[in-house]
Design brief:
Layout: H1 12-27, H2 32-39, H3 43-50, H4 58-67, H5 73-77
């Protein structure tokens, strides 16, 4: 008998933040690398956030929103 892994689920807030993060980054014409430099995080980290594969802390969400020039309420509200 083989055991199948449980399907990976994405929290709605994480998914919404991922979508808005990517949309906002593209609207600012920033690469993942450029945003990562602005926010002092790795490009891989930005990629994982945009894919919804990493659950950011409130501090991380605040930092990324700030580096994109918007208050944290904008990325949360838009989805």
């Amino acid at each position: 008998m083989s055991i199948k892994p449980a399907p990976r689920t994405v929290e709605p807030l994480v998914e919404a933040f991922a979508t808005v993060l990517r949309r906002r980054r593209l609207a600012l014409d920033l690469s993942q690398e450029a945003l990562a430099r602005r926010a002092d995080v790795s490009m891989r980290f930005v990629s994982l956030l945009e894919l919804g594969r990493h659950m950011p802390t409130i501090n991380t969400m605040q930092n990324l929103a700030k580096r994109q020039g918007v208050p944290l309420s904008i990325p949360i509200r838009q989805e």
